[in-house]
Amino acid sequence: MSETDQGRILLSVTGFNPKRWYELLSKERAVVLEPEGARDPSIRYAVVWKQKPNLLSTLPNLRAIFSIGAGVDHLFADPGLPDVPIVRVVADNLTQYMREYIVWRVLDHHRQGAHYRGQQLRKVWHEPYQPPAGEVSVGIMGMGHLGRAAAGALVYLGFRVNGWTRTERPMEGVSCWHGRDGLPGFLAATDILVVLLPLTHETRGIVDYRLLSQLRHKNALGGAVLVNAGRGKLQRETDILRALEEGILKEASLDVFEQEPLPKDSPLWTHPNVFVTPHAAATSDPAHLVPPMLAQMDAFERGEPLTNLVDRHAGY
Ligand code: NDP
Ligand code: OXD
Asked: Using DSSP, how many helices (H) and how many strands (E) does the chain show?
């Protein structure tokens, strides 16, 4: 098939260098980093991460948008988002990275990593009480592709696992709640809260002081714990700091922040009970993601349906 038959791919990325994405995509298709002027008719697909606002709305022959990430809030932030299908990332290797991150953080809080790191600095030889995993409950807000994978691994490790979703979604071995009505019961049964929600108009700012206050504080760990690897704007950082200050939260692991990069003057950087990672829980790897993206474009050209489509109404 010629380049004109296939159309071109617009690769529009801000915040990181798209070199590897460009190299891999352009092995199979013609790729551009900028449209050739307004209303460029040659572009059929856009592969994007935080694309420039109103850029996509100018493309008359755009057939579908592919998000480089699993989250698509970056797309909905565009006031000129055209009405074409949006495909997001669902990939085994991304899921595996996230499963690892959640297991790592839950085990570190459960096995008192912060406490032992403090003891080591002071050369203290002391073994505190270690509750068994079966006495600790992990509650996962957002039981989608990533949340369910993390839940499966935590069940395997022997934790009690709770899940919270928008719609009813049972999972074997997991106690499930859904909707706003289900939230208080879910929180009251949760010692370690893991947030793997998408950022939508319903979830923005959901992790606030009021929510954190409803976690089970009198627990085998000696306090409630927060792990957020969903999106930074799900959380209110001043509320997290207040909850830590007041002992409502014992510890937190945060991979995502209201502002990224996390500003140098944020007290989260130096808080002894906060573990910070730079939005690194699960990275989109082009070597794994480009081949299925191109295969989807080819299938779509043959008239087959796209998969992993975003529900515009729900916002994820
Ligand atoms: P999915 O779309 O597969 O799952 C989203 C889950 O959130 C679903 O269970 C959904 O409920 C639930 N949900 C959505 N809105 C609400 C709501 N209002 N109330 C309750 N539950 C809700 O997403 P993924 O699992 O693939 O990804 C989740 C998020 O993880 C992404 O959106 C992204 O923000 C983040 N992410 C972060 C990364 C990192 O490196 N830190 C890397 C990759 C993703 P239901 O099942 O009923 O639809
Ligand atoms: C994603 C991310 O959404 O990297 O995939 O945060």
From this structure: 10, 12
Q: Which of 284, 289, 316 to mutate to test the pocket of ligand 2 (most atoms within 8 A of CB)?
A: 284
Cβ-contact 84, 63 below 8 angstroms: yes
Distance CA 28, CA 301 (A): 14
* Same domain as 99, residue 67: no
What's the domain count of the chain? 2
Q: Among all ligands shown, which has an atom nearest to the Cα of 256? A: 1
pLDDT per residue, tens digit, the chain (316 aa), is 444 467 999 999 999 999 999 999 999 999 999 999 889 999 999 999 999 999 999 999 999 999 999 999 999 999 999 999 999 999 999 999 999 999 999 999 999 999 999 999 999 999 999 999 999 999 999 999 999 999 999 999 999 999 999 999 999 999 999 999 999 999 999 999 999 999 999 999 999 999 999 999 999 999 999 999 999 999 999 999 999 999 999 999 999 999 999 999 999 999 999 999 999 999 999 999 999 999 999 999 999 999 999 999 999 9
User: Is the shortest distance between the CB of 284 and ligand 2 below 6 Å?
Assistant: yes
Residue 197 belongs to some domain of the structure = yes
CA nearest ligand 2 atom 5, residue: 69
CA 32 – CA 192 distance, rounded (Å): 45
66 and 183 both lie in a single domain: no
Indicate which residue of 279, 302, 312, 313 is catalytic: 279
**Residue 105 is part of which domain span?**
92-276
User: d(Cα 314, Cα 121) in Å, to the nearest integer?
Assistant: 48
Query: What CATH number does residue 21 fall under?
Result: 3.40.50.720
Q: Is 288 a catalytic residue?
A: no
154 in the same domain as 207: yes
Q: How far apart are CA 171 and CA 154, in angstroms?
A: 13
Within-domain flag for 259: yes
